[in-house]
Amino acid sequence: MRRSDFYFELPEELIAQRPLRERSASRLLALDGPSAGLQDLGFRDLPALLHPGDLLVFNDTRVIPARLFAQKETGGRVEVLLERLLDDQEALAHLRASKAPRDGTELRVADRARLAVIAREGDLFRLRALDGPLPELMHRHGHTPLPPYIRRADDADDAERYQTVYAERAGAVAAPTAGLHFDQPMLDRLAEMGIATARVTLHVGAGTFQPVREEDLDRHAMHAEWLEVAAPTVERIKETRAAGGRVVAVGTTTVRSLETAASVNNDTQLQPYRGESRLFIRPGFSFRVVDAMITNFHLPESTLLMLVCAFAGYEPIMNAYRHAVRERYRFFSYGDAMFLTRRGQR
């Protein structure tokens, strides 16, 4: 398949620019993989789609205030988007400026803190904080790194709403957005039903918004993201499988985490894994772990749209997206959700 196979028309007004007042008030489009049947629901109907004994797996990454506004010594403006913290002093970052800074350039943030450009690494720049630790600098001067299709500046509400209620391990520069729909009452309700939970960590990078530039998907190079699937989660999945329950991934990042852990060891058994992933999931991929997933609506021609097509079927997903446009669902990070079961099983 080619990149253009994943194009669809999306009216600009359907791209959600702000979250709803209540997290769980969003809509939910359910797609049954085996039958391709669709149901228009609300997110609060999610418990009806789950069964006691199912396991919900969440990505507990926490979004950091990774966007900084700086100036060169010459006065030129630079927008800094930290992609990955390497330690308390150094990070890899995307820089937006009229002219790319050279090695040795100092950038000033809020006229006080300085960042030094020390190397270029592909599309990224290696930066070093010169006046204290980077986490402190971000805490004082950083902004919530809203996605490029949200065409407004971040505000105080975004610091809380562009974050899941269960976020724990800091390191993401984009939210695992399927989890934004969950509030504590929903989590409590699911627990009362006997729905078990487990966690993975995948620090979502800004590369998740990078367009696929190659028409031939065989030539596309996936960006790297750091993840961890720990032993307790692996054991919980094995217990769920043994009892006949389903593994339900909350978000594409959780899917990538679990399927990476299942593939890197060249083993039929899921094993703990800690490290980077460049896994590109597209039609033809064989899923080993995930039975169902909750996800938001994704950009045309994006790797995330390709992932859900691999999971629930190309034609069913593209039909579901056309349905969502007709029915005026809200798209992307602050938009509505989907519940998908894997093609070929319930």
Automatic annotation (TrEMBL):
Gene Ontology terms: cellular component: cytoplasm
Q: What is this protein called?
A: S-adenosylmethionine:tRNA ribosyltransferase-isomerase
Q: Where in the cell is it found?
A: Cytoplasm
The annotated subunit structure for this chain is: Monomer.
The annotated pathway is: tRNA modification; tRNA-queuosine biosynthesis
The UniProt entry's sequence similarity note says:
Belongs to the QueA family.
Q: What exactly does this protein do?
A: Transfers and isomerizes the ribose moiety from AdoMet to the 7-aminomethyl group of 7-deazaguanine (preQ1-tRNA) to give epoxyqueuosine (oQ-tRNA).
